[in-house]
Amino acid sequence: MEINLTLTANKWQLASQLERTKPFGGVMMVKNVPERTYLAVTPRQWEVLARFHEPRMVPQVLEGIIEDRLCPALGEFYELILKAVRARILVPPGRTVAVVPASNWALALSPGLLRVPVWVLFATGFGFTVALHPVLPATFLQGAASLLMLALAGAIGVALSASLLRGAGGEVYLERRWLVRNTDACMLAPSEQRTVALAPLAMLATATGVLTWSRPEWSFFPLVGLLVLLRPVLGGRVNRMIRARADKRLSDAEHAYLFPPNRTPGVRWRMLRAGVRNPATWVEIGYGVLWTLVLGYFVGVLTDVPPWTLAFWETEGPRLAFSIIGSLILLGLIYVGSEFYLFASERALARHETLRQWWRRWFGRGKVPTEEADRLAAVRRSGLLRQLPPPEQQALAKAMKPLLTGPWKILHDFDVAPAKVSLIRSGKVGVYRKLPTGRRTLVQVLGEDDLVGLHAVADPAQPRFLYRTLTPVILLQFDWELAAEIVLPRISAAALTNQVQKLPFLNRISLCQNWHVSAIQRFAELTRVANYAPDEVILQDGCFSDNFFIMFEGAARILRKGKVRGVVRGGDFFGEIGLLQNSNATAQVVANEGARSLCIRRQEFLRFVAHNYSVALELERVSSLRLGHPIFPLSRGNFQTI
Q1: Given pLDDT bands bounded at 50, 70 and 90, which one contains residue 362?
Q2: Inter-helix orientation angle 220-229/111-131, to 10°
Q3: Domains in the chain: how many in total?
Q4: Is there a contact between 129 and 209 (Cβ–Cβ < 8 Å)?
Q5: Cα-trace Rg, the chain
Q6: For a tag on the chain, would you pick the N or C end, based on fewer CB atoms within 10 A?
Q7: Helix or strand (DSSP H, E) at 19
Q8: Which structural domain range is residue 474 located in?
Q9: What was the pLDDT predicted at 314?
């Protein structure tokens, strides 16, 4: 499954033949009838999937549910889509499939009528097994007979389970013409699911009890089969029965994640805390301890060490207790160790590139590109210069001269027109403006592949800039006249503003750190630069704003009830909560002197967010931190913004 295409470009619609159950434990099952696939969803998640009744792309649906205030947590939303596509609940339009036929199972038994008898059979058989001691087979024939009894009891149990499933209205499927699959049991009510799951256990327990009473030497393998079916791990039937009756069940979008951003230590930690708070988890843990004790009991019986004697518990009791406690501690240590490893590796990867660039800028400047081929490669890496035709790229590369200079050197002053245009090969360059007080202020930081010397052309309304190196830098310089002759006539004013002003700014603010480069470029194209007079109101308290704002230069004040509650500075953003929640602002944002922002209108903002899931997730994270609670899902009547 190609995740980017699935979540952005492909169209999907609901499969033509779907069945749904009533919600049990907050979860309903959805079945693709022809293909025999299933998906567990909550009623709210089904509302989202129902938006695909006609062919739609995922961003279209996301825009709609944000508008209608029905959006779940975005990680859950994307996980739901991926799981629905994998389960073929969502399919490409016009898709035809081969139908998986159900078996014509003749015998149908009512789970409601047989629930008590099945429990009685299980309890009686297991009670006989515990009270009457099974023994190991003494001969090969006894072992073969024991295996035959296991196969016979297992076949009867599976047939009984299938008959109960059929009697409850479910379908029985056969594989290879003889292997019975009762996967349709998940479509039944919890009480019926438990009865269907219990049927094989009841038959094996009955067979084991009868054999322990009549032919103890034949009871070994049925006992092993019973203990395997009763296992508390790896999909045991008892665990399924416990989860079926839980008051709070998990949907398929809430575990076993496919969406990569959901596979993080933080998400797994939240899952662990939710599991600890769920009573069903403690029931499963308690059952696991009980199963371990029962296993120890039968091991003692089969090895002629009577577990009901005081001597057994004096010698073996501490070992059993140590084994149980040690196993739990070991599992906990393995979990904590794996989480710490994942956390540390993620942080190491995040810091490695930053440290590498820092070291290269200050201590390992690298090779100065004296060869024309190296300079041409640098031209083609520049977002602006690679838009030129190949002959002009080669002419620039030929005219470029390398310059190596140290930190804190002024390249161009305020009152001096740039004589050179420079392409940064390595290092950082600061862009400064002069305040009315005469003090200069840093408004932008340029890095590798950015251009120095074109800001006055890209921003003719405020053309005075100063360029100063912040680290040792390697520049590729060419004359301003050559730029005016080759570059400027072939680049539109909008493209020049995007590449010279917006993109270097967006690449270095925290909001865009996890965005894909194409998303940043598209966002730069959609935004416009807005200038504000001192004390001009950017966002009005109690009014709906149709824009999302990022402070581009200067600062603005956040006011609530006439008092300053905070300051918005370069790189900070605001207005997104009102747009995502479709609500009014509850604070006023007022511009300081020299304030400028990047603005994007609401419809373009929502469309951009819906088409870029990394952007949507980052906005959701930051907005939730600001609110003090998750922004999605929305609680009706409780919409807050800044």
Answers
A1: low
A2: 130
A3: 4
A4: yes
A5: 34
A6: N
A7: strand 18-20
A8: 372-491
A9: 67
